[in-house]
Amino acid sequence: MALQESGEMYIEAIYVLSQNSSAVRAIDVGDYLGYSKPSVSRALGLLKDEGLVKKDNDGYLKLTTAGEILAKRIYERHTVLSTLFMNLGVDEETAAEDACRIEHYISDKTFDAIKAHMKKYGTKNK
């Protein structure tokens, strides 16, 4: 399944929000991403059709097993790339923004090489 960048953004947002609250609503996702209610509704419908997100009986969003696996992968890319950029001297805000853009396009091969390099040379997490 080849999910577009916007879909990955929604999956990651649900994941991040669920780390702080067990009750994630569509409005929370919209607020987090700065997207309109109709945009969020459409995207969540597509993600449900893909089997990545579901709603419980109370209307709260939950990632499916496949959605959670994808979200963890995307979030790991974000955190590792942010850390790498900050270790290079980039300020935290810029590092996070750039990581957010790159995390959706970087190949697994390149990302794995970055992780191996950071592990080998003991870069610090900020």
User: What level of helicity do the residues show?
Assistant: 55-70%
Number of helices: 6
Rg is 15 Å
- Given helix and strand content, the structural type is mainly alpha
CATH hierarchy class name of the largest domain? Mainly Alpha
Strand content: under 5%
Instruction: Give the beta-strand count.
Output: 2
- H/E element sequence: HHHEEHHH
Q: Mean of the pLDDT scores?
A: 91
The CATH architecture of the largest domain would be Orthogonal Bundle
What's the N-to-C terminus distance?
Answer: 33 Å
* Strand order within the widest beta sheet: 1-2
- How would you sum up the global shape? elongated
Written account of the structure:
By secondary structure, this protein is mainly alpha-helical. The chain contains six helices and two strands. The longest helix is centred in the middle third of the chain and has 23 residues. The model has no long low-confidence stretch (mean pLDDT 91).
Topology diagram in text:
Elements: H1 5-20, H2 26-33, H3 37-49, E1 53-55, E2 61-63, H4 65-87, H5 92-102, H6 108-120
Antiparallel strand pairs: 1-2
